[in-house]
Design brief:
Elements (H helix, E strand, L loop, with lengths): L14 H5 L3 H15 L13 H33 L29 H25 L7 H11 L19 H11 L15
Helix pairs in contact: 2-3
């Protein structure tokens, strides 16, 4: 095995041959492989004397030798590349690669698209919230202010990245009917307000 080489590859395609061996023979073969890659044999003793083990050993030995040859070639190629001193520098480097001249200041970095998108989203939602508030203002004489406020807070709720508010996610949403139901379900919690007029 090559100097300073700490590992080797044992391919899975040897399994059918190994399965034909008895357990103690497979163990002997494995020890033989390890001794071989650690250079514990000379040319005369590198093949097992046992005929069965030798039959299983020969294709493994051939593969190990081929891998070792590839490893040595890779090492030589790396040594040659190292002697060259790495990648050669480009001879014709342009002085101003951008092709622009006369620009002294660095250009401003563009706004982050996400920040811009979030600002637009917030602006659109704010506008729609204002419109929703105007719709509720038409009913302020019929329902208590606290109820209208709570109704508004509930139905305009949205998460930071939502494009729609809660009421916009409904398949149908009639403000007057929803207010009427909200009031009915309040079970008199707004009774202290003077402006309670339940519309028909």
């Amino acid at each position: 095995m090559a100097e300073n080489k700490k590992s080797f590859v044992l391919y899975v395609d040897i399994l059918p041959s190994i399965k034909l061996l008895k357990d103690h023979e497979a163990g002997k073969l494995f020890i033989h492989i390890l001794r071989y890659v650690n250079d514990e044999f000379d040319k005369t003793t590198e093949d097992p004397k046992n005929r069965t083990l030798n039959l299983a050993w020969q294709p493994i030995k051939k593969t190990l030798k081929a891998d070792l040859e590839k490893y040595k070639n890779t090492c030589l190629r790396n040594q040659e590349n190292g002697k060259k001193g790495g990648r050669p520098s480009k001879e014709n480097k342009p002085k101003k690669p951008s092709g622009l001249s006369g620009i002294k200041n660095k250009p401003k970095k563009p706004d982050n698209d996400n920040d811009n998108d979030n600002d637009i989203l917030k602006e659109k939602i704010y506008k729609r919230k204002t419109e929703f508030k105007k719709l509720l203002a038409e009913h302020q004489d019929n329902y208590p202010k606290q109820m209208i406020d709570e109704f508004y807070e509930y139905w305009t709720e949205h998460s930071p990245n939502d494009k729609k508010m809660r009421h916009e996610k409904q398949t149908s949403f009639d403000v007057s009917r929803r207010l009427k139901n909200w009031f009915k379900k309040s079970n008199g919690s707004y009774d202290n307000d003077d402006r309670i007029i339940i519309p028909d």
